[in-house]
Amino acid sequence: MDIELLKKLYHYPVYGYDIVDSTNKIALDMAKSCAVHGSLIVADSQTVGRGRLGRSFYSPEGGLYMSIVLDMNPQFAGEITTLCAVAVCIAAKKLLNIELKIKWVNDCLYENKKVCGILCEGLPQMGKCVAGIGININREEFPSDISEKAGSIIVDENKREELCAYIANYVVNEIHNIPKHMAEYKKRLITLNKKVYFTFEGKNIEGIAIDIDDTGALIVNTESGIIKLISGEVSVRT
Predict the structure, then answer these.
(1) One fold for both 3-188 and 195-237?
(2) In sequence order, what DSSP letters do the residues of the chain get, joined into one string?
(3) Distances from the Cα of 85 to the Cα of 125, 141, 187, angstroms
(4) Pick the CATH number of 3-188 from 3.10.150.10, 3.40.30.10, 3.40.109.10, 3.30.930.10
């Protein structure tokens, strides 16, 4: 990653690393030390990349791993996640002419494989949130446990900084206009109007995903009534 080029494209503080344990961890530590809104942490690889639900995120050298410090109450983490997903999709289309889709709540897909994950974490006592985004780039092989689900996008070497800056600028500039982006999120969402399976209050449930509300929650019509999912994992059946 050419950090000097990135600094020219993104007009907030930028902190670049070759390798880190987790860009989100660094961003949270910086937020505790009063890092300014928009501070961007980027790395070429992560040793302990973090995903949702306590999972790890495979982060080999050459991907795009970035975290943004935001002056935003963590109670809006769901909305921020949807904004980040839209930012990634729009950037991929504009810069790479690639059409990405979204699987609720935080996965961006290319050719039905996950190429991007998003993790928002917060510091409620400080009114700050960290948006972490990891994108698989120019990767042909993955570990066997994720090889069937993981994918990658092709990005020319001189485009990685531009992609990173576009996503970060979009998120920071639009953070207070999230509701207007929900239509863009829904337009790309593969989960809507599909049968979904999930665990709710300790029970395995199936239903039809019928909508997304303004907070990013998934509305599911089940045999026992409407359920609103604000987090968790759903499996989609076509």
Answers:
(1) no
(2) --HHHHHHH--S-EEEEEEES-HHHHHHHHHHTTPPTT-EEEEEEESS-B-GGG-B----TTSEEEEEEE-S-GGGHHHHHHHHHHHHHHHHHHHH----EEETTTEEEETTEEEEEEEEEEEGGGTEEEEEEEE-BS-----TTTTTTB--B---GGGHHHHHHHHHHHHHHHGGGGGGGHHHHHHHBSSTTSEEEEEETTEEEEEEEEEE-TTSPEEEEETTEEEEESSS-EEEE-
(3) 26, 24, 12
(4) 3.30.930.10
The count of other CB atoms within 10 Å of the CB of residue 148 is 8
Give this prediction's pTM: 0.92
- Domain locations in the chain as residue ranges: 3-188, 195-237
**In this structure, are residues 236 and 196 in contact, taking their beta carbons and an 8 Å threshold?**
yes
Q: Which residue has the tokens 């001189």?
A: 158
Q: Domain 195-237 falls in which CATH fold?
A: SH3 type barrels. (2.30.30)
Over the chain (238 residues), what is each successive 10-residue block's mean pLDDT?
95 95 94 94 84 62 93 89 97 97 94 93 91 92 80 90 98 90 93 93 92 92 94 81
